[in-house]
Write a structure and sequence with these properties.
The protein has about 700 residues and is an alpha+beta fold. Among the domains are: about 260-405, Glycosyltransferase (Alpha/alpha barrel), CATH 1.50.10.100; about 410-680, Beta-galactosidase, Chain A, domain 5 (Distorted Sandwich), CATH 2.70.98.70. It is about 25% helix and about 25% strand. It contains 15 helices and 28 strands. The strands form seven sheets. The chain has an eight-stranded antiparallel β-sheet with strand order 13-14-15-16-25-20-19-18, with no helix packed on it. A five-stranded antiparallel β-sheet has the order 7-8-9-10-11, with no helix packed on it. Helix 8 (about 225-245) packs antiparallel against helix 9, helix 10 (about 275-290) packs antiparallel against helix 11 and helix 12 (about 325-345) runs antiparallel to helix 13 (about 350-365). It starts with 15 loop residues before the first strand and ends in a 6-residue tail after the last strand. Pfam families: Hepar_II_III_C. Keywords: Lyase, Periplasm, Signal. Its main location: periplasm. It is found in: Periplasm.
């Protein structure tokens, strides 16, 4: 159990005593939703005689404004314990308008009155941070009193009585930064108010004051930047409204000014933004709506509308390169709608933008109702955790028991995604194939996108055959994290000894489907990032025989100079945990339980399989946040000549049920596949 030290019900940090002068702030316990009450500091001088002077300090929503009484200045000066002077000289001026002189006395000053305990949470608390289940709230509050703070997914931060806010070994990069978000401390306030426990509220107030005092000077980028500054602004607004605390109020308004400083509203669509900008502007909106600063409130809302349009493409895809962040953005837009309601503002265009996301997220759901792992997404279930009042969201949330999916079974999105499937309601034992492909977003990439251009994933017969490694965890110093974001960790193509320019991107050349008539899906993506080597990947899902053909076209320009090292093209397929492999002639067969996937190839290069092992990043997958699981990588490499050359690598994936034989042959006329007595020959997919 953490000792609260000398800061407790005496409200140290809010009360400063000098000599025989005691300055006490009388704070109101019942918060109002729209505006702050005036704060009335009372100055008492006790000695052989006594005098009382009262001054009213009206708080201002201007972040740069300062309190107008020395009592408020004293409260803002330090969250440290009350200090006492033994000097018998006259006391300093208590307010700008009144001077109180205390006569020498041997009588000790009376103890300051305890701060009133709030009886309810402020309306902005319940809007921005809806209460959790009682058991969760209790457990988190107990952990905090025991010195342990859960900082988002970044680990557990150890709290001393007065934290130093520095990185710790038990937290990752995200956790070290999230200590500045302060929202992790809210269970103390919530539990303390709900159960009327003064020690919990006092510890919460103490932590807020410590952080504020320790960050009065210049702050590093990550203190104010990204999600951390936004969540802290929201937390401080909640705390200031509930506690009616002038120190926290000024800190909230200072942060709100930082959040709203950039004027996104000059553009209808704020391109280059991401989810954190929604959080930052929501915090500013709450601060200025609560304090009645309509001009800054309107600016924050205009920023929010522009940012919201910027993080959701017109087709409903996200800009993060990670479907999990589309889900997160939908949650944030729900929060924005709630903030607009609390503020009394119309919510347009937020509801319409949320609706766009439902179609995209539904398309990114695999037949097992898990979100496809792309970018910083883990393939988790969204059961009970996504959307509301929409048939597509209901279908996702209920795992198909209610609602309805979108109609298309092939779709391409401006966010850089292609999704295709056999159908929305596969029959037992029938085709349930689902696949995805990745190319560059039409808007600037965010840190949650991986270098996964040309990447393909494949799920069929209830098995994830070709997978994406996932995010692992947000630790910038971790080699596995960096590897999982790299091109070599994805089912794509790399070119060695060829200068790379990522900004050239991977572009979609062809995205078409005849799904409405039971026909095939054809997708072609062009990777121009490898200097003088251009790789174009074309895939075709042959719906009638449930197979995927992949053709990687390699166009290499002539190498200049005699001493340049040879260029090598490597094709990789990432195999998730739980699979075995065997060879039968020219066919490599993967097995998982009684299900199989045949892989047939043509072109140069033999298969090389490498399993995950300790000390290497190759072949590992994200099983859960920060938990890795061993998989494998299947690869083949082709050495390019120094002169100009053209070549093609063909790979055919054929899923099978137990006892089923589905021969596939790659010939000069294309690919021939026979399933259930039906033989199909199709030319290789090509861009033109």
């Amino acid at each position: 159990m953490l000792r609260l030290g000398r800061v407790g019900r005496s409200a140290a940090g809010l009360v400063a005593a000098v000599g025989a002068v005691t300055v006490a702030l009388s704070l109101l316990a019942n918060p109002a939703a729209g505006a702050r009450a005036d704060l009335t500091p009372r100055v008492d001088a006790t000695g052989s005689g006594s005098a009382t002077a009262t001054a009213t300090a009206t708080a201002t929503p201007d972040p740069s404004a300062s309190a107008t009484s020395s009592a408020l200045a004293s409260a803002a000066a330090s969250p440290s314990p009350t200090s006492t002077s033994t000097s018998s000289s006259p006391s300093p001026t208590a307010t700008p308008d009144a001077t109180v002189t205390a006569a020498p006395t041997d009588t000790p000053p009376p103890a300051p009155a305890p701060l009133p305990l709030p009886t309810e949470l402020g309306s902005w608390c319940t809007t921005l941070f809806p209460p959790q289940r009682t058991s969760i709230e209790r457990a988190k509050a107990q952990a905090l009193m025991g010195g342990k703070a859960t900082v988002s997914q970044g680990g557990t931060y150890t709290l001393t009585e007065h934290p130093n806010w520095k990185p710790q070994a038990a937290t990752d990069t995200s956790g070290d930064r999230h200590v500045n978000s302060l929202n992790w401390a809210l269970p103390l306030l919530y539990r303390g108010v709900h159960k009327q426990v003064p020690a919990l509220v006092d510890r919460f107030r103490q932590l807020m004051h410590y952080w504020i005092e320790d960050h009065r000077g210049k702050r590093s980028y990550w203190v104010n930047g990204s999600i951390y500054g936004g969540l802290r602004t929201q937390t401080l607004v909640c705390a200031a409204q509930t506690l009616n605390d002038p120190v926290i109020t000024q800190a909230a308004l200072k942060d709100a000014g930082i959040m709203v400083a950039r004027n996104w509203a000059t553009r209808e669509v704020a391109s280059g933004t991401n989810n954190t900008d929604l959080i930052r502007q929501t915090g500013a909106l709450a601060a200025y709506c609560w304090t009645g600063d309509n001009a800054r409130r309107d600016r924050a809302w205009a920023n929010l509308a522009s940012v919201a349009r910027g993080v959701v493409h017109e087709d409903g895809s996200d800009v993060e390169g990670s479907p999990g962040y589309a889900v997160y953005i939908e949650n944030l837009l729900t929060d924005v709608e709630a903030a607009a309601a609390t503020c009394g503002l119309p919510a347009d265009p937020i509801p319409e933008l949320r609706g766009r996301l439902y179609d995209f997220v539904a398309q990114a759901i695999r037949p097992d109702f898990r979100l496809e792992s792309l970018g910083d997404t883990i393939n988790d279930s969204l059961r009970g955790a996504f959307g509301a009042s929409d048939a597509r969201a209901d279908w996702v949330r209920s795992a198909g028991t209610t609602g309805a999916p979108p109609a298309p079974i092939y779709s391409s999105y401006a966010g850089g995604y292609v999704f295709g499937r056999a159908g929305w309601q596969p029959q037992p034992g029938g085709a349930d194939t689902f696949y995805s492909m990745r190319f560059s977003s039409s808007r600037p990439a965010t840190p949650h996108a991986h270098d996964d251009g040309l990447g393909l994933t494949l799920y069929s017969r209830g098995v994830e055959w070709i997978g994406d490694p996932g995010p692992y965890r947000y630790e910038n110093s971790n080699a596995l994290r960096w590897y999982m974001k790299s091109r070599t960790a994805h089912s794509s193509v790399t070119v060695s000894n060829s200068g790379r320019t990522k900004s050239r991107g991977v572009r979609a050349l062809r995205t078409q489907s005849e799904w409405a008539t039971g026909g095939n899906d054809t997708t072609c993506l062009r990777d121009a990032t490898w200097g003088a080597v251009i790789v174009t990947r074309c895939t075709q899902y042959i719906r009638s025989v449930d197979a995927i053909v992949v053709a990687d076209y390699i166009e290499a320009s002539r190498l200049k100079g005699k001493r340049n090292p040879a260029r090598v093209v490597t094709q990789r397929w990432q195999l998730p945990p739980g699979q075995s492999a065997s060879n039968t002639g020219e066919v490599l067969t993967l097995a998982s339980g009684d299900k199989s996937l045949d892989i047939v190839k043509s072109g140069e290069g033999g298969w090389n399989a490498r399993t995950a092992r300790k000390g290497s990043s190759i072949g590992w997958f994200t099983e859960a946040w920060g938990v890795k699981a061993p998989g494998a990588v299947l690869s083949r490499s082709v050495r390019l000549p120094k002169g100009q050359s053209s070549s093609v690598l063909v790979t055919v994936f054929v899923p099978r049920n137990p006892g089923e034989a589905v021969p596939a042959v790659i010939g000069p006329d294309g690919v021939t596949i026979t399933r259930n007595g039906l033989t199909i020959t199709t030319p290789l997919p090509a861009p033109g």
